[in-house]
């Protein structure tokens, strides 16, 4: 299991005078030194990483972020930037040595501008995804990034990790939804790249250096986001299918019939849905009888009407082709939300079934069924009785390929095989030309795996960029590279 290595030595205590200098930059109220008050900033949701820090600073403006980084650069103090602390690979957690300060951006909450005519919105990095969506909805627009932690994750964190989510099939990743960024560099300089232009060919597109860099090259403090017209018609169906191959055929039929109106297409196995029915309060099966696999399909469009008939036609063709066993269509918003609650509960309920070995991988969409079949056979042979629960975003090839422990097995003994199972799954992913990190990032968890999957020239370029933009290595050290 990818737990932090034992700490052999703690860093020397930060001089009180330096703590005071950092605190003075953000104000004493926003400089946290008490260990109990620091606790939420020093761990991850999965309980894999627990860090230490002499200080958490919570700047309230880009100027304060710049001042903190200028002092950190001057004194060689490592800084761990942090948004909503919802990351799953340890990228936002300081190390156990206590050498790093944590810089939380959650006080930076301003929606700076919303331009419905230009379909853009400019926000601070600490604005949550839900707040950004609400601000867009207030002017009849949609910010189409959508992930389960939207109430607490922040735009800065979304961009720094290049978040994906359930609507990437139609709108792409976070990288595809940003026009410009404001970034504070390691030495405290501020780059104002908050451009609202869709066309700007005046040199290198620098924003993409910082999107997905997990705070290792600079700290994103603001962003210009792309908006689209709010959907006027939304239709959703919970569909029982015979296999992942059948789900893929249904996806192809849906996209051929509805094109970009296919804005959600999630794949789930029956055994995992059984976990949901068992552990998620109020959950019920929308279908009369169990199916081997399920799809949650959603169509949406800014045009009024017509989608219900389209969805019914897609499903009717699926029934005729023998790939759809049964389907339930949402007649109300509450029913649609109930479908999505079943899907979004799938990550949470796994913990009630014991240990879980998790993978966030992607393969070409057409290869998803073959990948699942090969990986299932290999994992079940590796760990007798393990329950394989692959689920996720079939529309973009991103599968959360998880293993739940055998019934009655020892949890710690099962989790001790994490690295072994991970190597097996990642090896299969590689043979299909996939990625070992689809949307969660690299952080600490997958840092040491990169040399095995990245082209050496690519890694050299990444290291060169790190050395250029952060010559003292103070930004989120030990993460990604």
Explain what the structure shows.
The chain has helices at residues 16-26, 35-38, 62-75, 129-137, 155-160, 168-171, 207-210, 244-258, 270-279, 307-321, 333-348, 368-382, 411-415, 418-431, 450-453, 456-469; strands spanning 31-32, 56-57, 79-82, 101-104, 111-115, 120-124, 141-142, 178-184, 190-193, 219-226, 228-229, 233-241, 262-269, 293-301, 324-329, 356-357, 360-362, 387-393, 398-404. It has 481 residues and is α+β, with helices and mostly antiparallel strands. Strands 12, 13, 14, 15, 16, 17, 18 and 19 form an eight-stranded antiparallel β-sheet that branches. A hairpin with a 4-residue loop joins strand 5 (111-115) and strand 6. Helix 8 (244-258) packs antiparallel against helix 10 (307-321). The two termini are 20 Å apart.
Secondary structure blueprint with pairings:
Elements lengths: L15 H11 L4 E2 L2 H4 L17 E2 L4 H14 L3 E4 L18 E4 L6 E5 L4 E5 L4 H9 L3 E2 L12 H6 L7 H4 L6 E7 L5 E4 L13 H4 L8 E8 L1 E2 L3 E9 L2 H15 L3 E8 H10 L13 E9 L5 H15 L2 E6 L3 H16 L7 E2 L2 E3 L5 H15 L4 E7 L4 E7 L6 H5 L2 H14 L18 H4 L2 H14 L12
Parallel strand pairs: 2-4, 3-4
Antiparallel strand pairs: 1-2, 5-6, 6-10, 7-11, 8-9, 8-10, 12-14, 12-15, 13-14, 13-18, 16-19, 17-19, 18-19
Helix pairs in contact: 1-3, 8-10, 9-11, 12-14
């Amino acid at each position: 299991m990818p737990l932090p290595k034992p700490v052999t030595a703690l860093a020397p205590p930060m001089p009180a005078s330096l703590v005071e200098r950092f605190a003075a930059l953000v104000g004493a109220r926003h400089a946290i030194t008490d260990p109990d008050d620091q606790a939420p900033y020093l761990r991850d949701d999965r309980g894999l990483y627990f860090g230490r820090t002499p200080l958490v600073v919570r700047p309230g403006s880009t100027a304060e972020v710049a001042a903190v980084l200028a002092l950190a650069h001057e004194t060689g103090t490592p800084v761990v930037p942090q948004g909503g602390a919802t990351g799953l690979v340890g990228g936002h957690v300081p190390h156990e040595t206590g050498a790093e300060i944590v810089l939380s951006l959650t006080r930076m909450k301003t929606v700076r501008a919303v331009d419905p005519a230009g379909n853009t919105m400019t926000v601070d990095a600490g604005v949550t995804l839900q707040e950004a969506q609400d601000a867009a909805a207030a002017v009849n627009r949609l910010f189409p990034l959508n992930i389960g932690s939207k109430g607490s994750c922040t735009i800065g964190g979304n961009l720094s990790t290049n978040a994906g989510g359930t609507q990437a099939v139609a709108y792409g990743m976070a990288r595809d939804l940003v026009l410009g960024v404001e970034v504070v560099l390691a030495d405290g300089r501020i780059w104002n790249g908050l451009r609202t232009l869709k066309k700007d060919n005046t040199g290198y597109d620098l924003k993409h250096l910082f999107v997905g860099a997990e705070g290792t090259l600079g700290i994103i403090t603001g962003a210009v986001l792309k908006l689209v017209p709010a959907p006027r018609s939304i239709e959703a169906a919970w569909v029982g299918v015979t296999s992942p191959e059948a789900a893929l055929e249904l996806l192809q039929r849906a996209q051929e019939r509805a094109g970009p109106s296919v804005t959600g297409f999630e794949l789930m196995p029956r055994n995992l849905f059984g976990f949901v029915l068992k552990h998620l309060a109020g959950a019920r099966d929308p279908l009369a009888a169990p199916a081997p696999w399920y799809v949650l399909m959603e169509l949406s469009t800014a045009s009024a009407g017509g989608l219900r008939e389209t969805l019914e036609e897609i499903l009717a063709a699926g029934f005729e082709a023998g790939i759809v066993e049964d389907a339930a269509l949402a007649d109300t918003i509450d029913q649609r939300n109930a479908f999505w609650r079943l899907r979004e509960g799938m990550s949470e309920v796994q913990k009630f079934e014991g240990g879980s070995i998790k993978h966030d991988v992607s393969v070409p969409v057409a290869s998803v069924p073959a990948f699942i079949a090969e990986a299932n056979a290999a994992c079940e042979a590796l760990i007798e009785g393990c329950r394989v629960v692959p689920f996720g975003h079939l529309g973009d090839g991103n599968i959360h390929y998880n293993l739940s422990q055998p019934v009655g097995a020892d949890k710690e003994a099962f989790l001790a095989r994490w690295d072994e199972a991970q190597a097996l799954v990642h090896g299969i992913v590689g043979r299909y030309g996939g990625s070992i990190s689809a949307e969660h990032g690299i952080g600490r968890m997958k840092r040491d795996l990169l040399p095995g999957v990245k082209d050496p020239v690519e890694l050299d370029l990444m290291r060169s960029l790190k050395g250029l933009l952060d010559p003292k290595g103070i930004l989120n050290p030990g993460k990604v590279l």
